[in-house]
Amino acid sequence: MTMLSFRLEDADAREVQSWADRLGLDRSQLLREALRRHLNLLRSEVDAQVWPERPLTADERSLTAVADWGPAEDWADWAGDHGVDAQG
Hints:
The protein is mainly α. The protein has a domain at 28-55. 52% of the residues lie in helices and 0% in strands. The protein has 4 helices and no strands. It has helices spanning 10-23, 27-50, 58-61, 64-67. Helix 1 (10-23) crosses helix 2. The longest helix has 24 residues, at 27-50.
């Protein structure tokens, strides 16, 4: 793990500490997670720009049909009282 150091406004530092306290996190952990989420957001923006240049392959598109699969049966009432308990 690499250590980074940076300066920020006093008000921002107080808010970071306040959120860390509320969430029960170490301040460094809160900042690491915030940075990780922001980097993910930036990567997703690049992905959106690259998408038209490199569309899905036929193999990748074949998985889209699976996304439409729903449950084979309606199990909504399965947990209801059917006169049988877990013991049989």
